């Protein structure tokens, strides 16, 4: 079979303005809860796209760790590639793809670090191995396998069972300025509803052509 012949028919749901929430965060909450209670394997997985000072993009999968009307939160090493890019270009986009529900959510906005207290609280909730790993890994830097393994062994001994949060590790919050909800439909006539912030800080809802 040719790659060009691979296709899927989407027909499970539809997305109409009459059923959409007035606020995009409420709409996201509704879809997210449906993803949590369906057969979606990784409902919190999201593509994070950033760009450097020259506009060169990069993307990777990260995990959503919280959201509310203030934005969407994820955690990482501040010295990683994504952290370095966000320090010079604090604009990013997120993409959720829930194929089991034939849905995507595209989110664009500005990014800023969460508070130190918020990062501390989340770090303390992580499994011990993950907390040690945040100290051991110079994320996005070249390293050989044995060196990393030895760093983990050494830090496991020196940090004990209650390591403090590394100063180079913590959270970011993307404050949305645009959120698009995409529902797959037959004949590629997909439903696309987009919420955009207006000059007064209110949300405007539009339908986009598929």
Q: In CATH, what is the class?
A: Mainly Beta
What's the assembly state of these chains? single chain
Strand content: 25-35%
Structural class: alpha+beta
Largest sheet: 9 strands, antiparallel
- Tally of separate domains: 1
Unreliable runs: none
Order of helices and strands: HEEEEHEEHHHEEE
- Helix content estimate: 25-40%
CATH architect. name: Roll
Count of individual helical segments: 5
How would you state the average pLDDT, rounded? 97
Q: In the CATH hierarchy, what is the superfamily?
A: Electron Transport, Fmn-binding Protein, Chain A
Distance between the termini: 27 Å
CATH topology: Pnp Oxidase, Chain A
Structural overview:
The longest helix has 15 residues, at 145-159. The chain is globular, with a radius of gyration of 20 Å. Strands 1, 2, 3, 4, 5, 6, 7, 8 and 9 form a 9-stranded antiparallel sheet that branches. The chain is an alpha+beta fold and 210 residues long. The protein is 26% helix and 33% strand. It has helices at residues 24-36, 81-88, 116-125, 128-136, 145-159, and strands spanning 45-51, 57-63, 66-68, 71-77, 91-98, 103-113, 169-183, 191-197, 203-207. It has one domain (11-127, 166-207): Electron Transport, Fmn-binding Protein, Chain A (Pnp Oxidase, Chain A). The two termini are 27 Å apart. The chain is built from 5 helices and 9 strands; from the N terminus they run αββββαββαααβββ.
